[in-house]
Amino acid sequence: MDMADYGEEGRVGAFLRNPLMWTAFMLSLIYNLMNMLQAWNPAIPALGKYWTFGTVFTERPWSAFAGLSIAWRPENFGIGYLVSTEVLLSGWLFYLLVRSANFFAAVGGYEIPGLPFDGELAYGGYLALAIVLFWVGREHVGKVLHKAFTGDPAIDDSDERLPYRWAFLGAVGAVAAIIIWSHFSHFSPTFSIPYVLLLLGFGLVYSRVRAEGGVPAMWAFPFNQHKMMIFQLLGTRRLIRGNDPSDLVMLASYSWMGRGYYMSQMGYHIENEALADRYEIKTRLFWLFTMAAFIFGLVIAYYFTLHSYYSYGALTLGGGTESGGSNTWNARTQWEEVAAAIVRPDGPQLNPSLAICAGAVVTVLMVVLRFYWLQSPFHPLGYAISLNYGYALWSTFMFVWILKLAVQRLGGARLYRQLMPFFLGLVLADLLAGGLSWLLLLIIGPQALGGYVVQF
Question: Which helix (H) or strand (E) holds 70?
């Protein structure tokens, strides 16, 4: 909205004329260009992508922190400035606390495989937050259901994207269609229903992260872990009916839905609705634009993806090696897990299951704490975020948290708003460098930048 703000007619808006924005833009661009040049010539000085503690913490028990790293990512600094201080504090503090579990275990002489179970803690927290969101919104959900079933004129839904009845029928009908499709694919409702509900629940929480936390990180949720949650709580033995491993195979086949893009779409949709409200776009036309874009994108994506794969092959598109690219690697990994589970099925896993429960309990405790203590500095969304790709966020969040506290103490909201273009400039230049780096890779080849790529 700042970028699109054109003050006087025909004149570039204040944002694009702000010297702070262009200063940050150039700093961020120079940072990435120096890293690219260093990838070609190691003699050129550059900060690199990150600095790791592995060179410092080499002896036990301190080696438990060897995996920690400080990520120099301009985009995260810029985005972090817009995140609330409670989420920032919780993001870096809980990440360090969770990583400390390995340290204390080493001090006590314990070797626990899988510790600190950050993935399990993450989807325990997400599961608890999904239940909390439905509980907090139960009154509104009740009104929606009442309007959908009775058409009560006292409940006004004229300003909604869709009438409540159509929204309800669409939601229930879509989920039912997936379950029926799954049933005919020999994926029993016993497991397909909880899997789909986990997808929807985690997507709902991720949308809340985007709306309240302000963290537009693409994978700030336990991606690709929905299947693992069922494996750990129930065991793979429960997924094999006699000699029929269909449920196990179909769960692996559906695992792609638990990766980043599906959840990200829910976050984007929430933000689009917020923009539509700000610019007063007619609400009943909104779903038409969304569906038209979805169908158009789907047709184009199917054509190019299938045409490319059938014309050249997955291994060729993945770089021409025997292992292929990330898509091939992920598909192979899923089938290897299924093959291993068929040969050696196991039951519920105790330690991961306890970690899931612990993540849920800690999350609920923070929700209750914020309910009774409004000034609580601990935010459940920050806790959930810290356990998902926290290694790329914690250091940035800590630096920006300190900076924001100083800005708020010295200049208050006015100084905070005045400095905002600087941090947005960091984001714009980093995204520009990222887009250019991937275009160069596509045009010239995978070694176009000497191995340096600006990741998402």
Answer: strand 69-71
